Amino acid sequence: MLANPFNMRLNDCHDCDFEIQPRPTLTAMDVLKTMQKMKSALRGGKNKYNNAYLLANAFYNISFYGNSRVFFQSPITGSDPYTPFDIAVAFRPMLLSNKIAERYYLMARDAAVNKEQKARCTFMAAKCEKNESYNLVYNAAGKDGDQWNTDVNDQYFGKYFAALATGYKDTRFYQEILKECGFFRNYVRR
Fold it and tell me: Is-contact 12 150, C-beta < 8 A?
């Protein structure tokens, strides 16, 4: 793995993450085993916030949007140049979706013990929500074009940006979001 998929930052900066090599070096199998242990601990009610948050980070990062999409790179998933398009299309929803990550961020938010943690989880759910709006545009392009259009309408500003703006203004993390995230800054200004 080029980066640690369990780590997350406010802004997506894959090159920044690649500069910080995980120690020890992680393989895809290491990540799967760790995720399995975390899921088991969650089912047992152990350390709910940390396990849910780290799982959410991993699911986010192994998607197209994260720092560890190399996790899926193989001819089987269609993420190499030699794979026929129909195979790549079959795996597209799995590689692009942040729905599972969003679910775990919300689970972590429910288990959070303070407002800073809740704000962080809400913002990460907002990133997942925003990415899903990109997916709608990309999937609509179909097989005739890999149309990445970041000029999506405001639907991705949806419920999580609203929750941040109404419920977390008094947190330090809210101020960090305003400083680092132009999408959120635009949402607050409008």
Answer: no
